[in-house]
Specification:
single chain, 2 domains, 15% strand
Length: 448
């Protein structure tokens, strides 16, 4: 009992203790705020990538694509673990605005989709500006549903002069030109008829939250994109199949099953026309498919964690110095305790308990302060931007809305536990030194 009483008295009466509490509290506050924001941004970015492609992806990076995708879609449709499948055409094109006297072509990436199927597999419908409730109308311009429509990535749309609404005729009509390719990867045509060009009319805008996608992507009707890219004959081809599994099916397990189905499918089609293209097709889960985009963000998160680990090491030394000074000033108290029979282990428990109280108090105050700050972080950023033009993240570069401000219980628990461990680590050596003090030496008459 005396260990607890003395630990509390040291915490309340030693002014140098306040320095240790302040240092650990500040460290906990900074770590809580930054890790909450960073973890929120990483999780949000992963979720956006997941929404963009579904659970599983079958396809090839080759612009030639692969045949017999329709047959495999039927096979997948009979699987009880597959909810929906969306065939995809991916390629590159040149676009020019009809009726705008710029004389400039712009290179973009095109994605041919069937909006109804694609909306079931991905979060495409939620990214649309006007057709969230009925994604099947994504390619139907409101002013004339019979025209072939296109959906522009929000940032690309802004560059094209589409600021919302349907604008004027000069800003809503695009001529899209592609080089059709044969199954062998050569140009399908020669001479003056080298390029396929078709006119499309603005029908909607998509905001996926992925900077690269929103700044370079145009979505087209699947069949129209297939014609533009030369994939409609003699055997229809596609680049990718996006797959969504039923609720309760883990995407890794589902991808393994789909991979086995694909191997059997390739063997069955091995003697058919263009079967060699099937060998280049891969089956990947969404994380592996989007790894090139996700990995840099995860590395930033790891680096941030390492940096805070170094901050924790610095805090260990602060605690060490504080406890070394306290023990130096309390050597007579320690001598008195040991002279009445208090064991070395009890002395160590006393100062370790003292360190535990510092860590617990600092964690509570730091986490509470961090929670209050996070509640107001978006208002604070808004005020700074309004008065000083300052933003933590430039929204023209980072496609985020509000700054993530929900502190997870897991993150808070890890931070609190780490703070307590840091305090115990910093106090260990001074506590051990205190336990080894000789009461005869500390209580000599000349010392009193």
């Amino acid at each position: 009992m005396h260990e607890i009483i003395l630990a509390v008295r040291y915490l309340l009466r030693r002014h140098i203790t306040y320095f240790a509490v302040l240092a650990v509290t500040l460290c906990v506050f900074i770590v809580a705020v930054v890790m909450t924001v960073m973890t929120g941004l990483v999780d949000e970015f992963k979720q956006k990538n997941h929404n963009f492609v579904g659970d599983c992806v079958i396809g090839t990076e080759s612009l030639v694509g692969f045949p017999y995708y329709e047959d495999f879609v039927k096979i997948l449709g009979g699987c009880d673990y597959v909810e929906a499948v969306s065939p995809i055409i991916k390629s590159y094109a040149l676009i020019s605005q009809t009726g705008v006297e710029t004389g400039r072509n712009e290179g973009v990436e095109i994605m041919g989709i069937e909006p109804g199927k694609h909306g079931k597999v991905t979060g495409f419908s939620g990214t649309l500006s006007y057709n969230k409730d009925d994604v099947s109308k994504a390619f139907k311009p409101v002013y004339d549903p019979n025209l072939a429509g296109f959906v522009a990535g929000v940032e690309l749309g802004r560059r094209l002069g589409i600021q919302g609404g349907y604008g004027t005729a000069g800003t809503r009509v695009l001529a899209v030109s592609c080089f059709p390719l044969t199954a062998k990867g050569t140009l399908a045509r020669a001479g003056t008829d080298l390029v396929n060009t078709k006119t499309f009319y603005y029908s909607d805008t998509s905001q996926s939250g992925l900077v690269y996608v929103d700044g370079s992507m145009i979505y087209l009707p699947f069949e129209q994109a297939q014609l533009l890219c030369g994939m409609s004959e003699p055997v229809k081809r596609a680049n990718w199949l996006y797959i969504k599994f039923r609720p309760g099916v883990k995407f890794i397990t589902g991808c393994e099953k789909v991979s086995l189905l694909w191997r059997d499918f390739v063997k069955e089609r091995s003697n058919q026309t263009q079967a060699d293209l099937l060998d280049k097709v891969t089956v990947q889960n969404w994380k592996d498919y989007r790894r090139a985009f996700i990995a840099p963000v995860e590395k930033e998160q790891v680096m941030m964690t390492v940096m805070f680990g170094l901050v924790g090491i610095t805090t260990v030394f602060i605690i060490f110095v504080v406890f070394y000074m306290i023990i130096g000033h309390k050597s007579k108290d320690i001598g008195v305790l040991k002279s009445i029979g208090v064991s070395n282990m009890s002395v160590m428990r006393l100062f370790c308990g003292f360190a535990f109280l510092i860590g617990l108090l600092s964690s509570c105050v730091g986490l509470f302060g961090g929670w209050l700050f996070l509640l107001e972080i978006n208002k604070i950023e808004g005020w700074l931007f309004k008065h000083f033009g300052f933003q933590l993240w430039d929204r023209t570069i980072y496609a985020i809305g509000d700054i993530p401000n929900r502190m997870g219980f897991g993150v808070a628990a890890i931070i609190a536990l780490s703070a307590i461990i840091v305090c115990l680590a910093g106090a260990f050596l001074p506590s051990r030194q205190a336990a080894k003090l000789n009461p005869v030496e500390t209580l000599r008459v000349s010392q009193i």
